[in-house]
Design a protein that fits this description.
This protein is α/β, with parallel strands linked by helices and 563 residues long. Helix content is 63%, strand content 12%. The protein has 17 helices and twelve strands. α2 crosses α6 and α5 packs antiparallel against α11. The longest helix has 50 residues. The radius of gyration is 34 Å and the shape is elongated.
Length: 563
């Protein structure tokens, strides 16, 4: 996809044609001014009235064409960039989680930032580029009017010059592509600096190794590739400028010796070529910018097509009050590359979750607990087998609605600073009550759904994530190692009060946990061992703790918003 086709795909054809026409009109007027000036200089004693009016008219046409083309293109380009940002963002959010994890955050960030900016930088040059191309075209037409034989010679010289110019520009394109790949690596390292600041500050040798072996190597490669690309482009542009003077030298010294030429014609050629130097130089200088945009468009297109091929079909039907009786996993399998490079296979899994259950999901590290959880909630797609919701097979059309059953706090959760999507009239009142329950009311205030701060300790941030899950009020809750960062008091509140309270409200709760001292709170315990179910055990009354007292105590701590 070229830059022009990129704009054509996102705008009306008539708009693009009008932009190009006004740009060429401005350039043609520029060339007309050149011809007019040369005529006046060559015929100093000719009548001036018509020429003065012609000069003024061409100036106005050039100004009008330049302004109209630039204003229209700014509007068109910004609209197109807005559309592609939104389209790419929607494609990312509607694509399978596994695909996004394989693509990697640095590549996604590069597409949303560097590639978009590269396209923008190229798009804004188009009006001036059109005008300069029109100026060069008009100038060549004027040269043909002066002497078509010399024009043919000039065109041949330009063709040779263009061919010699393209050779280094191929090298420029190659190094720009390499530079973009190193730019992705740099984004990854910059994320490491931000996310791993504490660890890098505390370990000098690690910090120096990161700076010298990782960051410096990528930064040096990026610098080298971009430096080679820019210096090669500069050298090519200098060579192109030198060609103009070579052409003028040939016109002055060789052409008159080969064939007699009138002084006015020769003067017109020299003046025109000198006049065309700046427009041609602009065209040559713009080529690297267009090359960067072309690479970015190709990368975005490749990612967009890849995402589009794998994009899930989003259901648009809203579920006012999601309800359910059972979710069944039937012969479900899912495989991926493990930490040591081996293929890890989860399954086949056969499980059924019922409404109102409190389930603990256990197993060693790497046993597949989080992967299974992501399959259950619809973020990972089973590679074989089916998920059945109340007797209905979950298809791509149903998957979005199926996900609305779940409120989840992941171990690698993301904490929003606003209660997005929770715009109920009473949301602030409900949130304040939960802040008090979670002992965060002295740290955080909420007004119009906006949290006053999320700059808290890890345990407190997890409590805020839990608050959001509470406010979502979904039928099924899933907590992935939620208590791992909590102090003993809050662990006890979580296991002995919050979980039983959710169950008492009719919620189904799935807890991924290693805290075996609280397993007797559960109705069921499911243990995984390297992708397989080791056991799925229901606890009878003699094995379970008496949670009635916990429920009563939690009712004192928590106001049941349903009442």
């Amino acid at each position: 996809m070229t830059l022009l086709s990129f704009l054509l795909h996102r705008s009306r054809l008539t708009t693009v044609i009008l932009i190009l026409l006004t740009g060429f009109m401005a350039g043609a007027s520029n060339a007309g001014l050149l011809a007019l000036i040369n005529t006046v200089v060559s015929n100093i004693h000719s009548p001036k009235t018509v020429l003065i009016w012609s000069f003024g008219g061409l100036c106005l046409v050039m100004l009008f064409g330049k302004l109209v083309s630039q204003i229209m293109l700014v509007s068109l380009s910004q609209g197109a960039l807005f559309d592609i940002r939104m389209k790419l963002s929607r494609q990312i959010l509607s694509s399978p989680l596994r695909l996004l994890e394989e693509t990697g955050k640095p590549r996604l960030m590069a597409a949303l930032t560097e590639d978009i900016f590269a396209i923008n930088n190229a798009v804004v040059t188009i009006p001036m580029l059109c005008m300069q191309i029109a100026t060069v075209t008009g100038g060549l037409i004027y040269l043909g009017w002066l002497n078509w034989v010399i024009l043919l010679w000039t065109l041949g010289f330009i063709a040779v010059g263009a061919a010699t110019y393209q050779l280094p520009m191929m090298r420029v394109s190659r190094y720009l592509r390499l530079g973009r790949e190193q730019g992705i690596a740099l984004i990854k390292h910059f994320r490491t600096i931000i996310d791993g600041t504490k660890e890098l500050k505390l370990h000098r040798r690690r910090r120096e190794a990161f700076l010298t072996q990782e960051l410096q190597a990528s930064a040096a490669d990026y610098h080298r590739h971009i430096f080679i690309a820019n210096t090669t482009a500069t050298a090519a542009a200098g060579w192109g400028q030198l060609l103009f003077f070579i052409a003028i030298g040939l016109l002055i010294f060789l052409v008159p010796a080969w064939k007699p030429v009138e002084v006015t014609t020769l003067t017109g050629y020299v003046l025109t070529i000198l006049y065309l130097m700046n427009p041609l130089q602009y065209i040559l200088d713009t080529i690297p910018t267009l090359g960067r945009a072309q690479i970015s468009i190709k990368k975005i297109q490749e990612m967009g097509l890849s995402l589009a091929r794998s994009t899930e079909e989003i259901g648009t039907e809203e579920i006012a009050e999601p309800s359910w009786q059972s979710v069944k996993l039937s012969n479900v399998t899912h495989s991926y590359q493990g930490e040591r490079g081996e293929d890890f296979v989860l399954g086949p899994i056969d499980l059924t979750f019922h409404a109102g259950e409190l389930i603990f999901l256990t197993g060693g590290n790497g046993s597949g607990k989080t992967t299974l959880a992501k399959i259950v909630i619809g973020l990972y797609l089973p590679q074989s087998g089916n998920i059945i919701w109340d007797g209905k097979l979950i298809t791509d059309k149903m998957r979005e609605n199926y996900r609305q059953l779940f409120s989840v706090v992941f171990s690698d959760y993301y904490l929003f600073d606003k209660l997005l999507g929770l715009d109920r009239p009473e949301i602030d009142i409900q949130a304040r009550e939960y802040l008090e329950l979670l002992q965060l009311d002295r740290k955080v205030q909420i007004k119009d759904g906006l949290l006053s701060t999320i700059d808290l300790s890890q345990g407190q941030r997890k409590r805020l994530a839990l608050l959001t899950a509470y406010l979502e009020d979904r039928p099924i809750y899933l907590f992935d190692e939620w208590a791992a960062d909590q102090d003993p008091m809050f662990k006890e509140i979580f296991y002995l009060h919050l979980l039983p309270s959710l169950k008492a409200r009719g919620k189904t709760v799935i807890v991924i946990s290693h805290d075996d001292r609280y397993y007797d709170v559960a109705d069921r315990i499911i243990k995984l061992d390297y992708g397989k179910i080791e056991f799925d055990k229901s606890l009878d009354e003699s094995e379970r703790a008496s949670i009635d007292s916990y429920v009563e105590e939690s009712k004192i701590l928590e106001m049941d918003l349903a009442t």
